[in-house]
């Protein structure tokens, strides 16, 4: 997704992730040197207040942020609490935190939220019921946020891919 984004007419791409990957950042910068690519360490499982603090730093630096892509996810039904924390609670916290900056009722400019769901949010895979349930929660949460767009100015949608060859499925 980041590779495709930097090909577009962006000013900035901010990546929040647990893992610092300087080679990936350098690759993104090389694709389009006109885009400023910045990395901040971030774990979606941190409390809401910590997420808000990080976003304050980012908004102070950039002034505006137009799009949030919530793409963190794990597929490991043996880690029930972590799966829910990463796939759902973290996404809710990140969305909630950015709404404080974007909500037009609070003087914000509005924005766009893209939450990464899964086809399992609609059709559960019985072998991974916790993962499937966490993605169903993402779809439901996002639909609720989307219905408030006329009030908040924040558009929300999910992208729901099928099984994709990523590190997510290495243990599946």
Automatic annotation (TrEMBL):
EC category name: oxidoreductase
Pfam family, one: adh_short
Catalytic activity entry: a primary alcohol + NAD(+) = an aldehyde + NADH + H(+); a secondary alcohol + NAD(+) = a ketone + NADH + H(+)
Catalytic activity, EC: 1.1.1.1
Keywords noted in UniProt: NAD, Oxidoreductase
GO cellular component: cytosol
Record GO terms (molecular function): alcohol dehydrogenase (NAD+) activity
InterPro entries with a match to the protein in the record: ADH_Drosophila-type, NAD(P)-bd_dom_sf, Sc_DH/Rdtase_CS, SDR_fam
One GO process term, biological-process aspect: alcohol metabolic process
Family affiliation: Belongs to the short-chain dehydrogenases/reductases (SDR) family.
Record text on subunit structure and interactions: Homodimer.
PANTHER family the UniProt entry points to: ALCOHOL DEHYDROGENASE
Protein name, entry field: Alcohol dehydrogenase
